[in-house]
Specification:
Elements: E1 4-10, H1 23-35, E2 37-47, E3 54-58, E4 61-69, H2 70-89, H3 100-118, E5 126-130, H4 137-143, E6 150-153, H5 161-164, H6 170-177, E7 182-185, H7 188-200, E8 204-206, E9 211-214, E10 217-223, H8 230-239, H9 244-253, E11 257-262, H10 271-284, E12 292-297, H11 306-326, E13 334-337, H12 343-352, E14 355-358, H13 367-375, E15 383-387, E16 400-402, H14 407-419, H15 422-438, H16 441-472
Parallel strand pairs: 1-2, 1-5, 2-4, 5-6, 6-7, 7-10, 11-12, 11-14, 12-13, 14-15, 15-16
Antiparallel strand pairs: 3-4, 8-9, 9-10
This protein binds GDP-alpha-D-glucose.
Amino acid sequence: MSRLIVVSNRVAPTQEGRPAAGGLAIGVLDALKETGGVWFGWSGEIVSEAAPPVIDQQDSVTYATVGLTKRDYDQYYRGFSNATLWPAFHYRNDLARFDRQEYAGYLRVNVTLAKQLKALLEPDDIVWVHDYHLLPFARCLRDIGVTNPIGFFLHIPFPVPEMLRTVPPHEELVKCMCSYDVVGFQTEADRQSFVDYIERGGHGSTSDDGIVHAYDRFLKVAAYPIGIYPDSIAKAAAQFADRKVVKSLRDSMRDRKLIMSVDRLDYSKGLVERFQAFERLLQNAPGWHGRVSLVQIAPPTRSDVQTYQRIRQNLEGEAGRINGRFAQLDWTPIQYLNRKYERNVLMALFRLSQVGYVTPLRDGMNLVAKEYVASQDPEDPGVLVLSQFAGAAEQLPGALVVNPFDLSQMAEALERALSMPLAERQARHADMMGPLRENNLSVWRDTFLGDLRRVANASSVTAKAVKLADATAGR
Ligand code: GDG
């Protein structure tokens, strides 16, 4: 089988077995181990001048990582990727800025990375590129003569055309995306937004089998919702129940109910609205005073991007205000923990809680929602309260789905979740575990790579047919 080359902004884990390895890293790593291959991307380091990739061979997997200069980091990563694309793609164009120099830096880094990868490529390799940092990557590879099959998966939402057009180089970006052979999105809605942009803008057309013909290229465009490994999460959640931190939270809760939230500290996650909806619950239903606590774990990310500093201050202010308003000597309504926890401990905390409170304003998928469900004890499961704007809402029919902009509705959903009878909780949990198992992380990966390999074979068949026709015609 041909080698798999994975390209992502960050390469993780650089050393196997690192506990920070998330589901995605595990899924990708499994695939790499099966076929042998390379994982290429930024090492996370800032270097004084660009240098060739550092190669670290571990069995069949080669990690090839490069540093970024401060200028590259500022323009490509902090700038266009995280201060333009991330907010605009999460429908926060009020927070997005556009700077031509940053965009030039974004393109420049994509070009440099493509050149560095080309030196590592073999003719039969297939290339799988991940996420918004690398929208133009295939275009850059094609420009330097790479003809290998290249697929792309977008982890974040793809906005509707009107929102996409707020990003000034929108058409160039979409045109670049059409240099891939397969473009994958988290949801049908995201896929539709991409197709709408192409069709309504008069840039191309789509056939019933999901093949887009645009800018003189044919590409397969589909939704590939990312999954988790629910059974191994369930096992870990049960096994880690006796960890000290889990036990001490359990003891401190006494007979109180626990609402759990875990998110990277990001404005797309709707944390302020979530706190305010919890406040509304306490305001409307005093019977819950002293009987329920919200634990919010929010490890900081991108803390050198200004909007991220603001959200942190905002959130600390809100937690303090709400606690000041309702706390009693022996009860703190909101425990806000601005730090990272070990992954399996998180799963055990999910299992301990009665409600999983996952209400992003916009999210590509949201793995926390899926992890929450998988962590539950099927005999006595907690209830998931989930935003309709998380990609996961399309796939978790047993959740209480809410609009995160409607604080009253969220407060009502929390109350309903806290009071839900056991039989209903069990039925809802069972409704979600089936689809989670059927669409686990391996299915996501294998479906995407299956399509990429099929396209690769089809295009080589076409290429062969053309060659044959040329030879027959004596050209
Ligand atoms: C992007 C898209 C899409 C969180 N805190 C800790 C910790 N986590 C883990 C969670 C989960 C992961 O991080 C977060 O994944 P999400 O999917 O919830 O969100 P993003 O980070 O925004 O991910 C998203 C995803 O890509 C995959 O395609 O679903 O829509 O935005 O696994 O458990 N892990 C550890 N400590 C923490 O404190 N170890």
